[in-house]
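Example (one chain per record):
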Amino acid sequence: MRLALRELTPPGRGAVSILELTGTGALTRLRDLVVGGLAEGDLRLARLCVGGDVIDEALVVVLAEDRVELHLHGAPPIVERVRRALAPVSRAESVLPTTLEELAEERLATAPCEAAARILLDQVEGALRRALERILALGDEGSRAGELLRELVVAGERSRFVLEPAVVVLAGPVNAGKSTLFNALLGYERVVVNPEHGTTRDAVRERARWGDLAFDLVDTAGDRATGSGAAAAVERAGQRLGERLREAANLVLWLQPASDAGEPPVETGSLRVVRTRSDEGGGRLSAQPALSAGRDPESARRIVADLMCEALSLPRPAWIAGRAVPIVDGQREALEKAHGLATADGNWRKTVESLLDGTPSG
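Predicted structure:
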Protein backbone atom coordinates (compact mmCIF):
# COMPACT_ATOMS: atom_id res chain seq x y z
CA MET A 1 0.00 0.00 0.00
CA ARG A 2 1.51 3.33 -1.02
CA LEU A 3 2.21 6.03 1.55
CA ALA A 4 -0.56 8.56 2.08
CA LEU A 5 -0.55 11.61 4.34
CA ARG A 6 -3.82 13.19 5.47
CA GLU A 7 -4.78 15.96 7.85
CA LEU A 8 -7.66 14.61 9.93
CA THR A 9 -8.54 17.94 11.53
CA PRO A 10 -9.89 20.91 9.54
CA PRO A 11 -7.09 22.87 7.85
CA GLY A 12 -6.08 26.23 9.28
CA ARG A 13 -5.09 27.59 12.66
CA GLY A 14 -6.27 25.64 15.72
CA ALA A 15 -5.15 24.24 19.07
CA VAL A 16 -4.31 20.81 17.67
CA SER A 17 -3.72 19.39 14.20
CA ILE A 18 -3.79 15.64 13.62
CA LEU A 19 -1.78 14.13 10.76
CA GLU A 20 -2.22 10.49 9.73
CA LEU A 21 0.45 8.67 7.74
CA THR A 22 -0.60 5.31 6.28
CA GLY A 23 0.95 2.78 3.95
CA THR A 24 4.05 0.65 3.68
CA GLY A 25 6.95 2.23 5.55
CA ALA A 26 4.81 4.71 7.55
CA LEU A 27 6.45 3.90 10.89
CA THR A 28 9.92 3.94 9.35
CA ARG A 29 9.26 7.36 7.85
CA LEU A 30 8.06 8.75 11.18
CA ARG A 31 11.12 7.36 13.04
CA ASP A 32 13.26 9.77 11.02
CA LEU A 33 11.55 12.68 12.79
CA VAL A 34 11.05 11.38 16.35
CA VAL A 35 13.78 11.72 18.96
CA GLY A 36 14.25 8.49 20.94
CA GLY A 37 12.87 5.91 18.52
CA LEU A 38 9.42 4.34 18.12
CA ALA A 39 7.85 0.92 18.27
CA GLU A 40 4.46 -0.46 17.31
CA GLY A 41 1.91 0.29 20.02
CA ASP A 42 3.67 3.43 21.29
CA LEU A 43 1.56 6.32 22.53
CA ARG A 44 3.75 9.06 23.96
CA LEU A 45 4.90 12.64 23.81
CA ALA A 46 7.94 13.00 21.61
CA ARG A 47 10.10 15.77 20.21
CA LEU A 48 10.07 16.12 16.43
CA CYS A 49 13.29 17.13 14.70
CA VAL A 50 13.69 18.30 11.12
CA GLY A 51 17.17 19.06 9.84
CA GLY A 52 18.53 18.96 13.38
CA ASP A 53 15.98 21.51 14.66
CA VAL A 54 13.38 20.62 17.27
CA ILE A 55 10.17 21.99 15.77
CA ASP A 56 7.46 20.63 18.08
CA GLU A 57 6.56 18.27 20.89
CA ALA A 58 3.71 16.05 19.72
CA LEU A 59 1.61 13.14 20.86
CA VAL A 60 2.69 10.19 18.71
CA VAL A 61 0.29 7.29 18.23
CA VAL A 62 1.66 4.15 16.52
CA LEU A 63 -1.41 2.12 15.60
CA ALA A 64 0.47 -0.30 13.32
CA GLU A 65 3.58 -0.50 11.15
CA ASP A 66 1.55 1.04 8.34
CA ARG A 67 -0.53 3.55 10.29
CA VAL A 68 0.66 6.31 12.61
CA GLU A 69 -0.77 9.56 13.91
CA LEU A 70 0.80 12.83 15.04
CA HIS A 71 -1.13 15.20 17.27
CA LEU A 72 0.69 18.51 16.72
CA HIS A 73 0.25 22.03 17.95
CA GLY A 74 -2.05 23.64 15.38
CA ALA A 75 0.14 26.53 14.22
CA PRO A 76 0.10 26.35 10.37
CA PRO A 77 3.90 26.84 9.96
CA ILE A 78 4.58 23.86 12.27
CA VAL A 79 2.02 21.69 10.52
CA GLU A 80 3.36 22.60 7.07
CA ARG A 81 6.96 21.85 8.03
CA VAL A 82 6.02 18.44 9.43
CA ARG A 83 3.92 17.72 6.34
CA ARG A 84 6.88 18.46 4.08
CA ALA A 85 9.14 16.26 6.18
CA LEU A 86 6.69 13.33 6.14
CA ALA A 87 5.52 13.67 2.55
CA PRO A 88 6.49 10.76 0.28
CA VAL A 89 9.66 11.59 -1.61
CA SER A 90 9.22 9.79 -4.93
CA ARG A 91 6.49 10.17 -7.53
CA ALA A 92 5.77 6.46 -7.26
CA GLU A 93 4.98 6.99 -3.57
CA SER A 94 3.44 10.44 -3.86
CA VAL A 95 0.03 11.16 -2.47
CA LEU A 96 -1.88 12.38 -5.51
CA PRO A 97 -5.62 12.36 -6.03
CA THR A 98 -6.43 9.49 -8.39
CA THR A 99 -9.83 10.59 -9.67
CA LEU A 100 -11.51 13.77 -10.88
CA GLU A 101 -13.68 13.73 -7.78
CA GLU A 102 -10.75 13.28 -5.36
CA LEU A 103 -8.87 16.23 -6.83
CA ALA A 104 -11.93 18.48 -6.49
CA GLU A 105 -12.51 17.28 -2.92
CA GLU A 106 -8.89 17.99 -2.00
CA ARG A 107 -9.21 21.57 -3.25
CA LEU A 108 -12.60 22.14 -1.68
CA ALA A 109 -11.10 22.68 1.78
CA THR A 110 -9.12 25.70 0.53
CA ALA A 111 -11.70 27.19 -1.83
CA PRO A 112 -11.07 30.97 -1.92
CA CYS A 113 -14.70 32.04 -2.22
CA GLU A 114 -18.27 30.79 -2.27
CA ALA A 115 -18.43 30.44 -6.06
CA ALA A 116 -15.25 28.36 -6.11
CA ALA A 117 -16.58 26.09 -3.36
CA ARG A 118 -19.81 25.50 -5.28
CA ILE A 119 -17.92 24.75 -8.52
CA LEU A 120 -15.65 22.29 -6.73
CA LEU A 121 -18.55 20.61 -4.95
CA ASP A 122 -20.27 20.03 -8.29
CA GLN A 123 -17.12 18.26 -9.55
CA VAL A 124 -16.90 16.23 -6.32
CA GLU A 125 -20.42 15.06 -7.13
CA GLY A 126 -19.33 14.00 -10.63
CA ALA A 127 -20.29 16.88 -12.96
CA LEU A 128 -17.10 16.72 -15.04
CA ARG A 129 -17.11 12.93 -15.16
CA ARG A 130 -20.69 12.86 -16.44
CA ALA A 131 -19.87 15.44 -19.13
CA LEU A 132 -16.87 13.41 -20.34
CA GLU A 133 -18.88 10.19 -20.37
CA ARG A 134 -21.59 11.88 -22.47
CA ILE A 135 -18.93 12.97 -24.96
CA LEU A 136 -17.50 9.46 -25.19
CA ALA A 137 -21.00 8.09 -25.77
CA LEU A 138 -21.19 10.06 -29.02
CA GLY A 139 -19.20 7.37 -30.81
CA ASP A 140 -17.68 8.69 -34.03
CA GLU A 141 -19.45 12.07 -34.01
CA GLY A 142 -16.23 14.05 -34.02
CA SER A 143 -17.76 17.42 -34.87
CA ARG A 144 -20.28 17.25 -32.03
CA ALA A 145 -17.60 15.99 -29.66
CA GLY A 146 -15.45 18.95 -30.67
CA GLU A 147 -18.25 21.37 -29.82
CA LEU A 148 -18.79 19.85 -26.39
CA LEU A 149 -15.07 19.69 -25.67
CA ARG A 150 -14.75 23.36 -26.61
CA GLU A 151 -17.55 24.21 -24.18
CA LEU A 152 -15.59 22.51 -21.40
CA VAL A 153 -12.39 24.34 -22.37
CA VAL A 154 -14.19 27.70 -22.26
CA ALA A 155 -15.80 26.84 -18.90
CA GLY A 156 -12.35 26.07 -17.51
CA GLU A 157 -10.79 29.24 -18.89
CA ARG A 158 -13.57 31.46 -17.59
CA SER A 159 -13.58 29.82 -14.16
CA ARG A 160 -9.80 29.96 -13.73
CA PHE A 161 -9.82 33.17 -11.71
CA VAL A 162 -12.81 32.02 -9.69
CA LEU A 163 -10.89 28.97 -8.50
CA GLU A 164 -7.50 30.71 -8.28
CA PRO A 165 -8.00 34.39 -7.39
CA ALA A 166 -6.44 36.86 -9.80
CA VAL A 167 -3.69 39.18 -8.61
CA VAL A 168 -4.86 42.77 -9.15
CA VAL A 169 -2.26 45.52 -8.70
CA LEU A 170 -3.19 49.14 -8.05
CA ALA A 171 -0.65 51.46 -9.68
CA GLY A 172 -0.40 55.06 -10.78
CA PRO A 173 1.08 58.41 -9.77
CA VAL A 174 1.37 59.53 -6.16
CA ASN A 175 -1.84 60.72 -4.54
CA ALA A 176 -3.99 59.07 -7.20
CA GLY A 177 -6.17 57.44 -4.54
CA LYS A 178 -4.63 53.94 -4.65
CA SER A 179 -4.68 53.40 -0.89
CA THR A 180 -8.17 54.88 -0.58
CA LEU A 181 -9.46 52.47 -3.22
CA PHE A 182 -7.49 49.60 -1.64
CA ASN A 183 -9.27 50.18 1.68
CA ALA A 184 -12.64 50.59 -0.04
CA LEU A 185 -12.27 47.28 -1.88
CA LEU A 186 -11.28 45.49 1.33
CA GLY A 187 -14.07 47.11 3.31
CA TYR A 188 -11.82 48.27 6.17
CA GLU A 189 -8.86 50.59 6.83
CA ARG A 190 -5.91 48.34 6.00
CA VAL A 191 -3.37 50.98 4.89
CA VAL A 192 -2.65 54.55 5.91
CA VAL A 193 -4.21 57.24 3.71
CA ASN A 194 -2.52 60.65 3.80
CA PRO A 195 -2.22 63.56 1.34
CA GLU A 196 1.54 63.57 1.90
CA HIS A 197 3.33 62.31 -1.23
CA GLY A 198 5.13 58.98 -0.87
CA THR A 199 3.07 57.69 2.08
CA THR A 200 2.98 54.20 0.55
CA ARG A 201 6.54 52.97 0.11
CA ASP A 202 6.05 49.22 0.16
CA ALA A 203 3.60 46.80 -1.45
CA VAL A 204 0.67 45.57 0.65
CA ARG A 205 -1.24 42.47 -0.42
CA GLU A 206 -4.61 41.29 0.91
CA ARG A 207 -7.39 38.92 -0.15
CA ALA A 208 -10.50 40.90 -1.10
CA ARG A 209 -14.00 39.58 -1.74
CA TRP A 210 -16.83 41.00 -3.77
CA GLY A 211 -20.08 39.05 -3.83
CA ASP A 212 -19.22 35.39 -4.43
CA LEU A 213 -15.77 36.15 -5.91
CA ALA A 214 -12.31 36.70 -4.40
CA PHE A 215 -9.15 38.35 -5.69
CA ASP A 216 -5.71 39.24 -4.31
CA LEU A 217 -5.35 43.01 -4.20
CA VAL A 218 -1.93 44.74 -4.10
CA ASP A 219 -1.38 48.41 -3.18
CA THR A 220 1.92 49.79 -4.51
CA ALA A 221 4.05 52.92 -4.17
CA GLY A 222 3.08 55.83 -6.40
CA ASP A 223 5.14 56.84 -9.42
CA ARG A 224 7.05 60.12 -9.19
CA ALA A 225 10.58 61.48 -9.48
CA THR A 226 12.49 61.21 -6.21
CA GLY A 227 15.39 63.16 -4.80
CA SER A 228 18.42 61.95 -2.91
CA GLY A 229 18.88 60.65 0.61
CA ALA A 230 17.83 57.59 2.56
CA ALA A 231 14.09 58.31 2.42
CA ALA A 232 14.20 58.72 -1.36
CA ALA A 233 16.15 55.47 -1.72
CA VAL A 234 13.48 53.62 0.23
CA GLU A 235 10.75 55.12 -1.96
CA ARG A 236 12.63 54.19 -5.15
CA ALA A 237 12.96 50.61 -3.89
CA GLY A 238 9.20 50.54 -3.36
CA GLN A 239 8.63 51.85 -6.88
CA ARG A 240 10.88 49.15 -8.37
CA LEU A 241 8.98 46.51 -6.40
CA GLY A 242 5.74 47.92 -7.79
CA GLU A 243 7.09 47.64 -11.34
CA ARG A 244 7.95 43.97 -10.84
CA LEU A 245 4.53 43.29 -9.34
CA ARG A 246 2.85 44.94 -12.32
CA GLU A 247 4.76 42.68 -14.70
CA ALA A 248 3.55 39.57 -12.87
CA ALA A 249 -0.05 40.68 -12.20
CA ASN A 250 -3.11 39.24 -13.89
CA LEU A 251 -4.61 42.73 -13.97
CA VAL A 252 -3.15 46.20 -13.37
CA LEU A 253 -5.49 49.06 -12.55
CA TRP A 254 -3.68 52.29 -13.39
CA LEU A 255 -5.31 54.98 -11.28
CA GLN A 256 -5.11 58.56 -12.52
CA PRO A 257 -7.01 61.46 -10.97
CA ALA A 258 -9.79 62.86 -13.14
CA SER A 259 -8.19 66.30 -12.82
CA ASP A 260 -4.84 65.05 -14.20
CA ALA A 261 -4.54 66.22 -17.82
CA GLY A 262 -1.55 63.96 -18.50
CA GLU A 263 -1.80 61.02 -20.85
CA PRO A 264 -2.27 57.70 -19.01
CA PRO A 265 -0.55 54.51 -20.22
CA VAL A 266 -1.99 52.76 -23.25
CA GLU A 267 -4.41 50.04 -22.18
CA THR A 268 -3.31 46.49 -22.91
CA GLY A 269 -4.66 43.04 -22.19
CA SER A 270 -3.61 43.25 -18.54
CA LEU A 271 -3.77 47.02 -17.90
CA ARG A 272 -6.85 49.18 -17.47
CA VAL A 273 -7.02 52.90 -16.70
CA VAL A 274 -9.39 54.13 -14.00
CA ARG A 275 -10.04 57.82 -13.31
CA THR A 276 -10.11 58.49 -9.56
CA ARG A 277 -11.24 61.37 -7.32
CA SER A 278 -13.99 62.11 -9.79
CA ASP A 279 -15.82 64.22 -7.20
CA GLU A 280 -13.07 66.86 -7.34
CA GLY A 281 -13.90 67.79 -10.94
CA GLY A 282 -11.73 69.94 -13.15
CA GLY A 283 -10.80 67.16 -15.54
CA ARG A 284 -11.52 66.49 -19.17
CA LEU A 285 -14.05 63.99 -20.38
CA SER A 286 -12.61 60.50 -20.52
CA ALA A 287 -13.67 57.13 -21.88
CA GLN A 288 -12.23 55.38 -18.81
CA PRO A 289 -14.35 54.44 -15.78
CA ALA A 290 -14.41 57.17 -13.13
CA LEU A 291 -14.95 56.77 -9.39
CA SER A 292 -14.48 58.40 -6.03
CA ALA A 293 -13.56 55.73 -3.48
CA GLY A 294 -13.47 58.22 -0.63
CA ARG A 295 -16.91 59.74 -1.29
CA ASP A 296 -18.74 56.65 -2.58
CA PRO A 297 -16.87 53.42 -1.74
CA GLU A 298 -19.83 51.18 -2.59
CA SER A 299 -20.02 52.55 -6.13
CA ALA A 300 -16.23 52.25 -6.44
CA ARG A 301 -16.38 48.58 -5.49
CA ARG A 302 -19.11 47.95 -8.05
CA ILE A 303 -17.18 49.73 -10.83
CA VAL A 304 -13.99 47.78 -10.10
CA ALA A 305 -15.86 44.47 -9.88
CA ASP A 306 -17.48 45.08 -13.28
CA LEU A 307 -14.12 46.06 -14.75
CA MET A 308 -12.48 42.92 -13.37
CA CYS A 309 -15.19 40.68 -14.78
CA GLU A 310 -14.69 42.23 -18.22
CA ALA A 311 -10.88 42.31 -18.20
CA LEU A 312 -10.44 38.79 -16.78
CA SER A 313 -13.39 37.25 -18.68
CA LEU A 314 -14.96 36.11 -15.41
CA PRO A 315 -18.24 34.23 -15.80
CA ARG A 316 -21.38 35.96 -14.56
CA PRO A 317 -22.88 34.32 -12.70
CA ALA A 318 -19.66 32.77 -11.44
CA TRP A 319 -21.41 29.49 -10.61
CA ILE A 320 -24.16 27.59 -12.40
CA ALA A 321 -25.49 24.58 -10.52
CA GLY A 322 -24.24 21.27 -11.89
CA ARG A 323 -22.00 22.77 -14.59
CA ALA A 324 -18.97 20.68 -15.54
CA VAL A 325 -15.74 22.65 -15.07
CA PRO A 326 -12.12 21.49 -15.48
CA ILE A 327 -10.45 22.84 -12.36
CA VAL A 328 -6.67 22.60 -12.98
CA ASP A 329 -4.29 23.37 -15.82
CA GLY A 330 -3.68 19.69 -16.60
CA GLN A 331 -7.38 19.08 -17.20
CA ARG A 332 -7.76 22.21 -19.30
CA GLU A 333 -4.73 21.33 -21.41
CA ALA A 334 -5.95 17.77 -21.98
CA LEU A 335 -9.37 19.02 -23.09
CA GLU A 336 -7.77 21.58 -25.41
CA LYS A 337 -5.74 18.77 -26.97
CA ALA A 338 -8.82 16.57 -27.34
CA HIS A 339 -10.72 19.45 -28.93
CA GLY A 340 -7.94 19.97 -31.47
CA LEU A 341 -7.92 16.27 -32.34
CA ALA A 342 -11.70 16.16 -32.68
CA THR A 343 -11.83 19.12 -35.04
CA ALA A 344 -9.05 17.55 -37.14
CA ASP A 345 -10.76 14.14 -37.28
CA GLY A 346 -8.06 12.70 -35.03
CA ASN A 347 -8.22 10.21 -32.17
CA TRP A 348 -9.63 12.41 -29.41
CA ARG A 349 -11.17 9.53 -27.47
CA LYS A 350 -7.90 8.37 -25.92
CA THR A 351 -7.26 11.79 -24.38
CA VAL A 352 -10.76 11.97 -22.91
CA GLU A 353 -10.46 8.44 -21.56
CA SER A 354 -7.17 9.36 -19.86
CA LEU A 355 -8.96 12.14 -18.01
CA LEU A 356 -11.52 9.66 -16.73
CA ASP A 357 -8.88 7.10 -15.76
CA GLY A 358 -6.66 9.53 -13.85
CA THR A 359 -6.30 13.19 -13.09
CA PRO A 360 -3.60 15.29 -14.79
CA SER A 361 -1.97 17.46 -12.15
CA GLY A 362 -2.40 21.22 -12.36
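Caption: The chain is about 40% helix and 20% strand.
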